[in-house]
Design goal:
Elements lengths: L2 E5 H8 L5 H7 L5 E5 L6 E6 L9 H11 L10 E10 L9 E12 L1 H16 L8 E7 L7 E6 L5 E2 L8 E2 H7 L1 H6 L9 E5 L5 E4 L3 E2 L8 E11 L2 H17 L3 E9 L2 E5 L5 E6 H8 L5 H10 L3 E5 L2 E6 L9 H12 L19 H15 L3 E2 L5 E2 L1 H6 L21 E2 L4 H10 L7 E11 L2 E11 L5 H14 L5 E4 L5 E11 L2 E9 L1 H6 L6 E7 H8 L1
Helix pairs in contact: 1-3, 8-10, 9-10
Length: about 550
Amino acid sequence: MPLINFGYGDLCGLLGEEVPRETLMERIPMIGADMHSGDTGGDAMSVEFFPDRPDLFCVEGMARALRPFLGLGGAPSYEVFESEVSFIVEDSVRGVRPYAACAIVRGVDVDDRVLKSMMDMQEKMHVTVGRKRAKLAIGIHDLSAVRPPFTYKAVKPNEIRFVPLASEEEMDLDGVLEKHPKGREFAHLLEGKDRYPVIVDADGVVLSFPPIINGEATTVRVGKRDLLIDVTGTEPRAVKTALDLVSTALAERGGTIYSVETFEGGRSFIAPDLTPTSWCITSGECSAHLGIKLKPKEIVEALRRMGYAAHSDGGRVNVDVPAIRVDIMHKVDLYEDVAIGHGYERFGGRHGQTQTTGSLMPSTRFSEGIRDLLVGLGYTEVVTLTLSSERDEFELPRIPAKGTVKLLNPISEDHTCLRASLFPSLMRVFRKNKHRDLPQRIFEIGDVVDGSRRKGRVCVAEVDSRSSFTGIKSVAETLLRETCTEYALEPSALGTFIDGRGAEVVSGGETVGWFGEVSPAVLEDFEISHPMAFVELDLAPMARKRG
């Protein structure tokens, strides 16, 4: 989750009132956060927000959310004025990085705190919503240093030269990718492209080389500034989200938002568009979801504390959702905010009066037996995420991808799908612990998704200079023997294993697992420098035999 660092004094200044530190420490977690520090008496505070709320990834967004929540103000409202500035998106960028939009925020008092907050906000957006700049990249510029109209186009690598940010040397675009630290870090995003995207002004001054680096000419410095914000990316909704969030955050610093008209492919649009979306919920449905009876008036009050404009009409509640609340995708999201605004501490209710006796489910009891067995064999249990990436699940282990369950809107490139097997997760554990002493022996019992079916599995893995096919075969046979599973072994064709040192476990005419010694090529890709072997088995066939 994104960690936001800020100053207590800065937050109070944005709130417009000095709120006791103890109140902030108590109330901030109630809107969906985890306080990391702030009770030491110093000015520095830090808080970790859930990744579904990018509007809170900066101190300005926190202040905006806390004002109505603490009763210090109402729903945020931002007026957007016309600037008569235009932004031209040429057709040449369609195959490179096709979407872009701009906004202007005038009259921002930029000091060191604002500069730091701007940079932190950009980086948080790049890493989360922007998937490390692959999906979107943000630039903030000193508007007084350039002259509109602005043009976004794709050019040949040696066609344009400019001085990149934090540099004194003029370079062409290939030079930036080869010499500049940011160029080397993000060069892979433009790999295979014969043209690179740039944003220039009317005089040809380079504002930005997205998604790599801004130009030194538009560096934002301390003072009262008019700022130009550009966002480029590969998905239009993400571009709009970032532009709305950055421009409104700067407005919280006293700036005034001005629109920019973008001309693209024979059409034009005005950005930023902060028009709220209208929703309608009923008190009955909301109460049913939350498990407490709330009147329409109480729902309206709760929503207003969460920064919405809301009013009741009989049993219906009409809600205006601000453009910055990109996490609202379903009525259930509004019901959750009603619960937060109402206060979870006020839910109450009676404890059940019926005395019951609980017991473990048969599948859980079976897993506990497997767990005890592996602990007795000297293995340590680990628990890893069920989210993974197609690269870790299929590309690095040399396994053909089939029936992958992908996430529709992943928050990072490391979590784009549900895991199809357990051993890549264990290999990531070994990768992070490669500086630890050997041998390392671990196991995990958990769920995977095979096609559209969820399966319980056990995976046992070890890294040791003496890891071998024979050793892991004995572990596999112990698990199968102790669970009374009838099985046969057949050679495995998986590219994960060294040729001739991998086997499939067949039971009831179907493959229920595999084991073997991991290929050096796979070990190298996972940055593991010692021999490794693993066994992974489906639990269901073993549980049936055991039962």
